[in-house]
Amino acid sequence: MTQTALVVGASGIVGSAITDLLLENGWQVAALSRHPSQAKGVIPVAADLQDPDSVKQALAAIKPSHVFITTWSRQATEAENIKVNAAMVRNVLDALSPGKSVKHVALVTGLKHYLGPFEAYGKGSLPQTPFREEQGRLDIENFYYAQEDEVFAAARRDGFTWSVHRPHTVTGVAVGNAMNMATTLAVYASICKATGRPFVFPGSRMQWDSLTDMTDARQLAKQQLWAATTPAASNQAFNITNGDVFRWKWMWGQIAEYFGLHPAAYPPSPLPLETQMADDQAAWSDIVREHGLKEADISRLISPWHTDADLGRPIEVVTDMSKSRELGFKEFQASDKAFFEVFDELRARKLIP
Fold it and tell me: What is the reported pLDDT for 31?
């Protein structure tokens, strides 16, 4: 029997990866986003997740066995993040409730579960690294916790199982994504090469020197599918990373070599990308014209604020993967190759030179 999935946020980095994986495995996929998906093989579903009536109307004929929630909406304050993002999850699950078709819901959150929301990111009393799933919630409001609570409440009401997936920074390809380090660094490197600017690491000395990890969107997709189809993984939260660790002082050199650049020495003080790239639209427009690229609006490719938040952390960030490994999830992805494969795809799609 063909399984039917609803992917919420199907046009994003995470949503497009799980959509592709489900299709490869013979699933029927309804792809929900604000604008109808053009992806081959999916059922396009358009809805405004903040409008319950819009969601109910869009999902009236959709009877998924599995739901993958991979989206969020950035707001000005954490209080607004909680209000809006909890409502988005609630609106989807309330709309599906009358159909009684849902067997499992997978929710993607992230390491802000351990590090705190953007307003208090990496500050205060934090758990020791490596982060482990049994480490409890921080004593601070966090929209990830609110999203989880909506899933838990709906699961009690409707009787489905759930899984929560906590990736580190996700690498993948999606134009217009709010959190996109790999594409941000690719655009930055392309501008440095075209203009002769030094390729300067924008983050903290701690991130430069310390061990860290990353999450390829395809690796995250594999874990979501595994948890959704593995009874032992039901009703649990899982960290998800590529499975390797690295130091940015090494990775920066690997990225520089890919783009034919020399990595600059660590600067006397941090130079955030939001500052470095503030006036780069003109330089990007020149590159787009010269190379015939497909996206002229630099703001649809880069998210300097998010890359700065990740690379500027004053603490080591390493994630433990033992829990899902012990239950049978054995997938691995080398992080340097994950970056290179994103860069290759960006070139193939004429998004970078």
Answer: 96
Same domain, 203 and 115: no
Q: Are residues 203 and 300 in the same domain?
A: yes
Which amino acid makes up residue 44?
P
Burial bucket for residue 166 (CB in 10 Å: 0-12, 13-18, 19+): buried
- CATH code of residue 110: 3.40.50.720
Which DSSP state fits 333?
-
Which entry of 114, 144, 188, 222 is annotated as an active-site residue?
Answer: 144
**pTM score of the predicted model:** 0.94
Angle between helices 181-195 and 248-258 (to 10 degrees): 60
Residues 161 and 179 in one domain: no
Q: How many domains does the chain contain in total?
A: 2
CA 282, distance to chain mean position in Å, is 28
Q: Write out pLDDT tens, residues 210-232.
A: 999 999 999 999 999 999 999 99
Domain termination site, one of 133, 167, 201:
167
The reply to whether 112 belongs to the active site is: yes
Give pLDDT < 70 ranges for the chain. 1, 120-124, 178
Residue 256's H or E segment, with its range, is helix 248-258
The catalytic position among 40, 63, 112, 145 is 112
